UniProtKB/TrEMBL annotation:
This is DUF1778 domain-containing protein. It comes from Aromatoleum aromaticum (strain DSM 19018 / LMG 30748 / EbN1) (Azoarcus sp. (strain EbN1)). The keyword Chloroplast does not apply. The lineage of its organism: Bacteria, Pseudomonadati, Pseudomonadota, Betaproteobacteria, Rhodocyclales. Keywords: Plasmid, Toxin-antitoxin system. It comes from the Bacteria. Pfam families: TacA1. GO terms for biological process: regulation of DNA-templated transcription.
């Protein structure tokens, strides 16, 4: 007996024009409408997540970031106070 895969159902009401457009696009690619829509939605979701989670920097910003990692500035007074407060609350390592 083949392993079962669990699935969830997604329903959406769309205009007849959009339905015709999706159907035509799926036919052009030789896919079912379901496969076409699921793939398109998955690609859009992955792109939205990537745009939200990936930080893109200009070359100048990349250089400043690398410089800060290689030669970090000395801790400021405010940072030292924050570190001391952290140690009081959570214990020093």
């Amino acid at each position: 007996m083949p392993p079962t895969t669990s699935t969830a159902r997604l329903e959406a009401r769309i205009s007849p024009d959009l339905h015709a457009l999706l159907k035509r696009a799926a036919e052009i690619q030789g896919r079912t409408m379901t496969d076409f829509v699921v793939t398109a939605v998955k690609d859009a979701a992955q792109k939205a997540i990537e745009q939200a989670e990936v930080i893109r920097l200009s070359l100048a910003d990349q250089q400043r970031f690398a410089d800060a990692l290689l030669s970090p500035p000395k801790p400021s007074t405010a940072l030292k106070r924050a570190m001391a407060k952290h140690d009081q609350l959570f214990g020093a390592e």
